[in-house]
Amino acid sequence: MKNKQPTPKSTTTHIAALSLVLAAFCLPTAQLQAQGRGSPPTPVDFTQTLSGFCSFDIFAQVTGKTGVISLPDGGFIFTAPATRVTRTNLSDTTKSVTLSLTGSAEIGPVQNGTITEIFRGRNVVAFGPFAPSPNQLLFLIGTWTVVIDANTGHVLQGPTGNGQMTDVCGLLD
To answer: What is the 3-state secondary structure (H, E, C) of 96-139?
Structure first.
């Protein structure tokens, strides 16, 4: 696995998705707050085709469980116990990888115009076309932080942290 830490840049960036699990599970803030502190994780099983992150399209099959915990400060923790994703290169279907995504993503409340996201454990994070390193699909192991402008959704810093950062496209190329 490659280890790399991109340096923060002041260019306009934004995060396209937190991870496949979060994209499938995200609920409006008001709905999450109405649910109280959280509930036991619920099963998840879905497929998705991703374009624009690699020089080829990716098919993803996600299975496992996801949950959300509302924090007293207005933030949330998204959990993914026993969650796995199998990603396949659609240009060469003999190339695939199965990843365990048993991490969590803590999304903090808005403070001073920013939102801090902390990824712990094993997560996949997708960055869109205007990120410092555009169109990246990263497999993160460890503790990683991303700071986002609350008004624009642009990434101001990150991911920075400790652990392993792997380009998912490289795993499928």
So the answer is: EEEEECCCEEEECCCECCEEEEEEEEEEEEEECCCCCCCCEEEE
Segments making up each domain of the chain, as ranges: 15-172
How many Cβ atoms are within 10 Å of 82's Cβ, its own excluded?
14
Rounded Cα gap, residues 164 and 158, in angstroms:
14
Quick: pLDDT tens for 158-168.
899 999 999 99
Q: Is 28 a residue whose pLDDT tops 90?
A: no
Max Cα–Cα distance, the chain, nearest Å = 47
- Mean local confidence (pLDDT), 130-148: 86
Per-residue pLDDT band for 131 (boundaries 50, 70, 90) equals low
Altogether, the residues listed in the chain come to a count of 173
Residue entry with tokens 């454990």: 121
The CA-based angle 162-78-156, given to 5 degrees, is 50
Distance CA 149, CA 155 (A): 6
The answer on pLDDT for 135 being more than 60 is: yes
